[in-house]
Design a protein that fits this description.
The protein has seven helices and eleven strands. By secondary structure, the chain is of the alpha/beta class.
């Protein structure tokens, strides 16, 4: 691994301690909320696309405890330095160096019960590029089309399996358009920075081949007026509580 300044940071109230770059890509609350929303059963398989340092699957494994050993967890990313940290963060999870835009050995289409992803929030050329390569790539310096990313992720999901993702709320229409031809039973769960404000993030879950209607949920308010986390957010971020996005 190339030289990189690394920090070790507590998540879920200290239940896990994860290594990540001191500068560049950093795990955010979006990662933790998405991981908290995943409903997986024993012996199922889950793929994290754009896994970076493994925040999503590490948080999921920590919440599930011993039950995590019954899952087949795989992460894929194009950044070897971040994947090296992901492997250190949880040695029981398989991490593969590969690009979802192409074929990846060990990640066959239509083979995962769940696919989860926190796609880059911006597309190539839409924002000033970060000087830190890990952050630049995570923010979309190499991504041309969010819709195509979603379609490639959906390609990995087995029939009747699920794709879950978190993204900017203002990209909802693009995500729905990418999902619609092959997925249904779409659930949208808004995340509000504060009460009275528009949602700035959304968690979306869709079933491949699902026929159910689209469902918009009431969502979660993340911060109080004083900037501190709400009690509901605190339980998820600090105490590893499951986020029930079906409510």
């Amino acid at each position: 691994m190339s030289k990189m300044d690394v920090t070790e940071d507590d998540f879920l109230g200290g239940i896990i301690n994860l290594k990540q770059p001191k500068k560049g890509y950093r795990i955010t609350s979006d990662t933790v909320f998405l991981a908290a929303s995943l409903q997986v059963k024993k012996d199922e398989s889950i793929l994290d696309v754009g896994a970076a340092t493994g925040g999503i699957l590490s948080c999921l494994a920590a919440r599930l405890g011993d039950d995590a050993a019954r899952l087949k967890m795989t992460g894929v990313d194009i950044q070897p330095d971040l994947l090296s940290l992901a492997r250190e963060n949880n040695q029981s999870i398989t991490y593969i160096d590969g690009d979802i835009m192409g074929d990846i050995k060990g990640c066959e289409p239509n083979s995962f019960d769940h696919v989860v992803t926190n796609p880059p929030y911006y597309e190539k050329g839409s924002v000033t590029t970060s000087p830190y390569s890990s952050k630049a790539i995570a923010h979309g310096s190499d991504m041309d089309d969010l819709g195509f990313w979603v379609q490639r992720c959906l390609r990995m999901v087995r029939p009747k399996g699920y794709l879950s993702l978190v993204h900017r709320a203002d990209r909802l229409d693009d995500i729905i358009m990418a999902l619609k031809p092959k997925a249904g039973s779409i659930l949208i769960y808004p995340l509000f920075a504060k009460a009275g404000e528009d949602a700035n993030r959304i968690i979306i879950r869709a079933q491949k081949g699902g026929k159910g209607l689209l469902s918009l949920k009431s969502g979660l308010i993340v911060h109080k007026s004083d900037g501190k986390y709400t009690d509901a957010a605190e339980k998820i971020l600090r105490h590893a509580q499951f986020l029930d996005i079906e409510k």
